Amino acid sequence: MTTTTKATWIETLISQYATDSRALDNYRKSLDLDDPQEKEEAGTVSEMLSDMRYALTWLKRGRRPGSRRGVEITDVYRQREIYIKLSGQEITDAERLRLVDSLLALSDRERTCFLLHMAQGLTLLEISHKLNLSRGAIYEYVKRAKAKLKQDFI
């Protein structure tokens, strides 16, 4: 799938989510809150709306809602998008296999930390809480993984 196709697909998805979110909100407003069954239904619909808005925000921003990273250009998704635009080409199957081999060559801890940080977009602090390690240790694992991958691809 090309970058242009992905962008069009995401724009279509955003449009559908926005339309369905408005329809669901209108349905929730039409429910009679004095009726116990409809009040329970309204609660369920409100939860659905919350999930839809969360997903919609993620799609629009290209990053997890609530992230306090600030500058969007530092976001993992944006970096990958900029790289693809600058390189002007998509990764080939051979390059993808080479990348997988390089990732498998990393230690389990380096690979886990690297993927959580670069692919999932978690901060070093979030990873340290998940893995019960210090932020400094996570930083070192990610730094070593980047160095090893850079060495494999230069």
Protein architecture, described:
This protein is mostly helical and 154 residues long. It is built from seven helices and no strands. It has helices spanning 3-30, 36-61, 76-87, 93-105, 108-119, 124-131, 135-153. Helix 1 runs antiparallel to helix 2 (36-61) and helix 6 (124-131) crosses helix 7. The longest helix has 28 residues, at 3-30. The radius of gyration is 21 Å and the shape is elongated.
Protein topology:
Layout: H1 3-30, H2 36-61, H3 76-87, H4 93-105, H5 108-119, H6 124-131, H7 135-153
Helix pairs in contact: 1-2, 5-7, 6-7
Q: What keyword list fits this structure?
A:
154 residues
Q: What would the principal axes of the Cα set say about the shape?
A: elongated
Cα separation of the termini: 26 Å
- Low-confidence runs (pLDDT<50, min 5 residues)? 70-88
Q: What is the number of beta strands?
A: 0
Order of helices and strands: HHHHHHH
Helical amount: over 70%
Structural class: mainly alpha
What is the residue-averaged pLDDT? 78
Strand % is: under 5%
- Tally of individual helices: 7
The main pleated sheet reads as: none
Q: Give me the Rg, rounded.
A: 21 Å
